[in-house]
Specification:
With 304 residues, the protein is of the alpha+beta class. The protein folds into 2 domains: 3-158, Ribosomal Protein S5, domain 2, CATH 3.30.230; 166-291, GHMP kinase, C-terminal domain (Alpha-Beta Plaits). The chain has 10 helices and 13 strands. The longest helix is centred in the middle third of the chain and has 16 residues, at 102-117. The two termini are 32 Å apart.
Length: 304
């Protein structure tokens, strides 16, 4: 095979808890990860030149070794002594630096693409081991779906998919430094932890209300203090009928879970009028190997 097209799906955290900090500075986490129907597109092609060429639709993204896609491709080229080069066209839709693992998803897709293009015959587990060298979220972005994530994010336990619902995802223009968010969290003296075990039971019982009631993100309060718009987006979603709304990852993207499409549409229409919003998506869950057919990916905000 000379070329391949792939979709790199983003994720949200239905629950994010921090249970400790290791001596090496990494935080021990316990999270419920869920893939959603927002994806980047990768086109990969083998070329004769002995180098990696990356093009992207976002001019501010690095296109060299500073990009995880290039690092993923080079990792396998070096390991397997591949002298042919690779041309990659990356079309971004997942919000950047937003807590949705967009860069990790792209790197995971690049590993899968290399495995197919060069017939490396690596198993999913072997790809995940190599992905961990690129980032803690990359192994999850290879398996996707619903999973309990522990350790620094690399210990993954598959979970049942949540019941179908409408997921409204909103990325404000404001951004937050992951390093500063964790530093502020470490300085906190009082933390409200999400009930991850209750959420797991809700997933097992297919009870969306139980899942929503147990949701939480320990990083949200410190990020909201820096970016108040996060709290305002969350409040709008709740007022319009969301079962629950929450920031994902270390921010600043907010998502809300809706059982009724008309309520999700009303929340989307109100939020899209806010000049502080960059991107809005109304989507659903993604469960490999097939897409949940609630809504095709469409960008409904500014900045696409």
């Amino acid at each position: 095979m000379k070329q391949i097209k792939l979709k790199a799906y983003g994720k949200i955290n239905l629950g994010l808890d921090i249970i400790g900090k290791r001596e090496d500075g990494y935080h021990e986490v316990r999270m419920i990860m869920q893939t959603v129907g927002i994806y980047d597109r990768l086109y990969m092609e083998r070329i004769a030149e002995d180098r990696v060429l990356l093009e992207t639709n976002l001019p501010y993204l690095p296109t060299g070794e500073g990009n995880l896609v290039c690092r993923a491709v080079e990792l396998l080229r070096q390991e397997f002594g591949i002298r042919q080069g690779v041309f990659i066209r990356l079309q971004k839709f997942i919000p950047v630096a937003a807590g949705m693992a967009g860069g990790s998803a792209d790197a995971a897709a690049a590993l899968v693409g290399m495995n197919v293009l060069f017939r490396l015959r690596l198993s999913k587990e072997e790809l995940m081991k190599r992905g961990l060298r690129l980032g803690a979220d990359v192994p999850y972005c290879i398996i996707r779906g619903t999973a309990l994530s522990e350790g620094i994010g690399e210990k993954l336990t598959p979970l049942p998919a949540p019941p179908d619902c409408y997921v409204l995802i909103v990325k404000p223009k404001a951004s937050a430094s992951t390093r500063l968010v964790y530093e502020r969290y470490d300085a906190c003296t009082s933390v409200c932890h999400p009930d991850i075990d209750t959420m797991i039971r809700g997933l097992q019982q297919k009870d969306l209300s139980q899942i929503a009631g147990a949701m939480g993100n320990v990083l949200e309060p410190v990020t909201v203090a820096e970016c108040p718009v996060i709290g305002e987006i969350k409040q709008t979603m709740l007022e319009k009928g969301a079962l629950q709304a929450m920031m994902t990852g270390s921010g600043t993207t907010v998502f809300g879970l809706f059982q009724k499409e008309e309520e999700a549409e009303l929340a989307r229409e109100q939020l899209r009028q806010d000049m502080r919003i960059r991107q809005i998506y109304l989507t659903g869950w993604f469960q490999p190997p097939q897409h949940l057919p609630i809504r095709k990916q469409t960008a409904k905000g500014k900045g696409e």
